[in-house]
Design goal:
This protein is of the alpha/beta class and about 290 residues long. The protein is about 40% helix and about 20% strand. It has helices at about 15-25, 35-45, 75-80, 95-105, 115-130, 145-155, 210-215, 220-240, 260-270; strands at about 1-10, 25-30, 55, 85-90, 135-140, 165-175, 185, 245-250, 275-280. Helix 1 crosses helix 6, helix 4 (about 95-105) packs across helix 5 (about 115-130) and helix 8 crosses helix 9.
Length: about 290
């Protein structure tokens, strides 16, 4: 039997992940008391049981019992029943978690009345050991539900290799400011600007005419070659360093033409490798 322990930070999407796994055919139970897990495994591992894959939601709601997992993850009793156990850890930036709690008006399990930030800090300390032992780590700070589903399907349905790195490729306009959470920032303002071509001015880098104008320049061709080579080198090395979320920002003046074109090209390049999750975002494409 395949067992997935779904854990991580409250507000990072554990409940959503369990629903996605349930839709994928997993028998899912959320917040089962940890002392009952051995009995649960025993029932599902019985010869007449027809459950082949299950998912358990475990988090700080288990209180002090959570410390029982601080030793071996998976615990030794799983191996005794020939159960394959994987740990999925869902994380998100603190500011994102605070925003989600404010939007839902829910109380953090460790925060007390109104103290969301303090609760997040306490929880992060409590679950650090689980993150270190996780099989898969997904940072949902920038993920939409459909993007989370796509990543979980890769791992738990399609069985593809997954290296715990989720890449966001973002185009932006320097006139609106550099994205605060960008890990890598590239400036493509040296390329010819379609803004000054009357028939292209109101179009974007998602339009073929703009793409042709930008990419047909020799400088764009050379830049793309070096750009892809650099990113192709960096991604596996970021994985070796334990990074699980990477934001690559590509900027031009207004964020509509050159940066969108180059971000789309990089997205196509990274998407070819199933080892990484990847999404694209055009932050300023609709701004005037």
């Amino acid at each position: 039997m395949r067992l997935v322990i779904v854990t991580g930070m409250s507000g990072a999407g554990k409940s959503t992940a369990l629903k996605i796994l349930e839709d994928a055919g997993y028998f899912c139970v959320d917040n089962l008391p940890i002392p009952l897990i051995p009995r649960f495994i025993e029932m599902l591992s019985a010869p007449d049981a027809d459950v082949k894959k299950a998912a358990l939601g475990i988090d700080v709601r288990n209180g002090q019992a959570l410390d029982e997992l601080a030793g071996d993850v998976p615990p030794a009793w799983l191996d005794a029943r020939m159960t394959t156990c994987e740990v999925l850890f869902l994380d998100a930036r603190d500011d994102v978690l605070v925003k989600r709690y404010k939007e839902t008006r829910r109380q953090h399990p460790l925060g007390g009345e109104g103290h969301v930030g303090e609760g997040i800090s306490r929880e992060r300390e409590r679950v650090t050991f689980l993150k270190k032992k996780a099989t898969y780590i997904l940072d949902t700070s920038r993920m939409l539900t459909r993007e989370l589903k796509a990543e979980l399907d890769k791992i738990f349905v399609e069985g593809k290799d997954f290296k715990n790195l989720y890449v966001t490729i973002m185009s932006f306009g320097f006139k609106y400011g550099i994205p605060q959470d960008a890990d890598l920032v590239f400036d493509v303002r040296f390329l010819p600007n379609p803004y000054y071509v009357e028939e292209l001015k109101e179009k974007t880098g998602n339009d073929a005419g703009v793409q042709d104008y930008v990419l047909n320049d020799e400088r764009a061709e050379k830049f793309l070659e070096k750009f892809k080579d650099l990113i192709g080198f960096l991604l596996p090395n970021y994985i070796l360093e334990g990074k699980n979320q990477l934001v690559i920002a590509v900027g031009c003046t207004g964020g509509k033409h050159r940066s969108v074109t180059m971000a789309n090209e990089l997205y196509t390049f990274v998407q070819q490798n199933d080892d990484y999750g990847v999404r694209i975002e055009h932050r300023d494409i609709d701004k005037r």
